[in-house]
Design a protein that fits this description.
The chain is of the alpha/beta class. It is 50% helix and 15% strand. The protein has an eight-stranded mixed β-sheet with strand order 7-5-6-4-1-2-3-8, sandwiched between helices. Bound molecules: uridine-5'-diphosphate and magnesium ion (MG). The site of magnesium ion (MG) has 5 residues, from loops.
């Protein structure tokens, strides 16, 4: 019988944990698979952990990892993968936006030999908000060509993919990006995403911006390439303009004038230079952060695991 690991990143979700647990147990209680639920408490400041601890005392399917602080849901998913034992692993969010029944459809595809099964949210073309639309377009064009057009929300991956992704132990990255980057045989199913059961989204605008930059810097050299192209274009323009001025002076004796336009050019060029430095800085900072070899997360305690999973030593 195949073992399926269901990984649930949890950050201040005290109102949702019991509901998602009950729903999952109901759905999996009648299934022909064995399963484990791995909850990762991503540094919650509410009662999430004690609720999880109680659940795991009652039910041996429930395993809990507690982070020492908030490391973000992608680090939480990575930890879940590292501690998982399943032949296939899937991520689901604690707010019940993704219907747990969906997991069976994902499993069906996996049984048919697909190593990466992606659940894509069904957007009505017009209702997809501008930001995600632009984000996924850019990602497809410049970073990960196999990113589904409508983005990704849920993944189920085979043990082979789990091993590939956990062996990287990358920080400042997107776990979904890493899965897509690793290749493997992928397929898509669409589903209707619900609304959050209780509470508010834990993905703040700051976290979204970080993910946006992380995705591009981790999987694309396009930002660096664009710097070079803009630099060359500006230099070329400057050179042509200089020729034009000298030409005018020599042949038409025209005086050189225009402080205002000079200021504009200066400000524009300085602005562009600062943006370029910023982009370089983003790469440099990540390379520095990686070279310090700090782990992508720190586990404060774990409950319910018989022995440690594949990568836990390195991150404990
Ligand atoms: N989450 C987490 N750490 C964070 C932010 C979110 O573990 O720093 C979890 C959260 O508890 C939820 C899942 O990630 O289970 C998805 O987050 P959320 O529903 O807040 O995001 P949204 O659906 O708005 O994108
Ligand atoms: Mg949500």
């Amino acid at each position: 019988m195949s073992l399926i690991s269901i990984i649930i990143p949890t950050y201040n979700e005290e109102e949702n944990i019991s509901a998602i647990y009950e729903k999952l147990s109901e759905v999996f209680g009648i299934a022909e698979y064995s399963f484990e639920f791995i909850f990762i408490d991503d540094g919650s400041t509410d009662n999430s952990f004690s609720i999880l601890k109680n659940l795991s005392d009652k039910d041996s399917h429930v395993k809990v990892i507690r982070f020492s602080r908030n490391f973000g849901s992608h680090a939480a998913c990575l930890a879940g993968l590292m501690y998982s034992k399943g032949d296939a692993c899937t991520f689901i969010s604690a707010d019940m936006q993704d219907p747990p029944e969906l997991i069976f459809e994902l499993i069906e595809k996996w049984k048919r030999g697909f190593e990466v099964v992606i659940g894509v949210r069904e957007w009505e073309e017009k209702s997809m908000r501008l930001f995600p639309r632009i984000y996924y377009k850019l990602v497809r064009k410049f970073a990960l060509k196999n990113m589904p057009e409508m983005g990704t929300d849920v993944f189920l991956i085979d043990r082979k993919v789990v091993d590939a992704v956990t062996s990287m132990k990358e920080k400042n990255t997107s776990i979904f990006g890493l899965i897509l980057w690793s290749g493997f045989k992928q397929t898509i199913i669409t589903y209707k995403k619900g609304s959050r059961y209780k509470g508010v989204s834990k993905w703040t605008p700051g976290k979204k911006i970080k993910l946006f930059i992380d995705t591009f810097v981790s999987f694309s050299f396009f930002p660096i390439r664009i710097i070079s192209v803009i630099g060359i274009l500006i230099a070329l323009f400057g050179f042509l303009y200089a020729t034009f001025i000298v030409f005018n002076k020599l042949f038409f004796a025209k005086p050189i004038e225009g402080w205002a336009s000079l200021m504009v050019v200066l400000l524009v060029v300085f602005g562009i230079q600062l943006i370029m430095l910023g982009i370089l800085g983003e790469y440099l900072w990540r390379s520095f952060d990686e070279s310090r070899r700090r782990p992508p997360f720190i586990v404060a305690e774990n409950i319910g695991f018989e022995e440690k999973g594949s990568g836990s030593n390195a991150c404990k």
